[in-house]
Write a structure and sequence with these properties.
The termini are far apart. This protein is 33% helix and 23% strand. The chain has a five-stranded mixed beta sheet with strand order 1-3-2-4-5. The protein contains four helices and five strands, in the order E-H-E-H-E-H-E-E-H.
Length: 118
């Protein structure tokens, strides 16, 4: 399944290969969500959730969607299942959510971690 860059939030960066992604990109963003979703029957639905999230949290969060190659290359994310959502604040991992999620669940996940920061 071909992935594409979606012009949302700031954008959802969908990587077709690990060459186009650098973990330093996360450190450049104050708030970031790294997602890995295996391209199975739930893939489109979970990408739609990320699109909804990006519209709601416009200009607040950068979302990175990593493919299998990026997951293998960047072991520091320690992703072992799909879907996995990792919340970063100022370049540091602050929380993980494993399993399918709807938009409200991701908003609550991000909001709870942001509240812990203040």
């Amino acid at each position: 399944m071909d992935m594409q860059i979606l012009p949302l939030v700031k954008e959802i960066v969908m990587e077709k290969d690990a060459a186009g992604f650098d973990p330093e990109m996360i450190k450049e963003e104050k708030i970031a969500l790294v997602a890995h979703i295996y391209p199975d029957s739930d893939f489109k639905q979970q990408v739609d959730v990320l699109n909804d999230l990006s519209k709601i949290m416009k200009n607040i969060i950068q979302i990175f969607l990593l493919d299998e190659d990026a997951v293998r290359k960047y072991h520091e994310f320690d992703i072992s299942g799909s879907p996995t959502f990792i919340f970063f604040y100022n370049g540091e991992e602050k929380g993980r959510l494993l399993g399918k999620a709807d938009t409200k669940t991701l908003i609550d996940f991000i909001s709870n971690h942001l509240l812990e920061m203040i």
